[in-house]
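Archive entry. Fields below.
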Amino acid sequence: MTDQLRAVREFILERNSTMDTVSDDLDLIDSRAINSLAFVEFIFLLEELTGDSIDPEDLDLDDFRTLKAIEARFFTQEAVR
Amino acid sequence: MAVREIEPIALALDRLELMAESGYYNPYTMFDWPEAIEPDKPWMSESLTTLAGTPMWDELTREQQLALTRYEAINFFSLNIHGIRELLSEVVMRIHDRTYAGVSEFLHHFIGEENEHMWFFAQFCLRYGGKLYPAQPSLRADSVEHLSAVARELIVFARILIFEEIVDHYNAHMATDMDLPVIAREINRVHHQDESRHVAFGRMIFVNLLEQVAKRDPNEVPLVAEYLESYLSYSIGTLYNPAAYRDAGIPDALALRRRALEHPARQAAHEQVLKRTRKFLSKVGVGRELVKR
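PREDICTED_STRUCTURE:
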């Protein structure tokens, strides 16, 4: 697990006291692991972790549904770059 | 007979309606929009900026400080615009539902006034700043679908009320800040005047719906309290827009945002901004003391 993905897991776990683990394919949105109120902070976290701005008017929700999707969309590209 | 999920709302609104009608002004003609704003004037009270009271403010150059007041004024007004868009959608969808038939007269005033607020906030930002900040990213997925219909309804009006109360804290301060340009002071003064009535209305409708939630299932009240406390924190977070720091020429916007939000002086300021709202929520029985943490 990369440091970035670990930081994402920590963000989710600290906001969901009843969870003790986040599986890679858990639907974070349908399960409310990331709810509408935490989503803005989550975007800022991803911006810090990637060093790139994320345009709030150009978001695809499916990019945020699972840890796998987040890794593929935000962290793998950076590894390749 | 089907059991109604949400009982019709009945409120004594004659006084508020009279005030809305007698206090009517035409915002399209009443403001004197100057060609430009004096470059040495802050657009937001310096004590209300997100870095106020911290070493992070003191470390800025005067030019950066003034720039931050400009961009944070634009952020504040942009948040107002996007908040009003949301509340207008919600109210328009309900205005002639049976539940709200008894309050639709006031809702018509409310819709008209909020549309006008949206106009003069946009006018200020676009005329002097050349931009609005985009709406915060939001999940269209429903984060409250686990709650009953009446609790979800309560949350719609709670969000409107909380938004109005936080904004009004800022308006009330800036309405009398003689360091601001006249046009900025006037916009805040006029908005404060209208919002005082909107807050009064919002509190009445909130209490009515909360009573319905508590009667239907008292166990749902702490869940509502938990959501509302999160919404208060969320609302504070939206004031700390890293795009405003970047535009003001301040480096490391995201790290600065995190440090500022956590700074004790800022946390004390947040307590002040939220004090009135939290006091009201506790008084009516849905305060943060109900939230298990």
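CURATOR_NOTE: Chain A touches chain B at residues 17, 29-30, 32, 34-41, 43-44, 47-48, 54-57, 59, 61 (CB under 8 Å).
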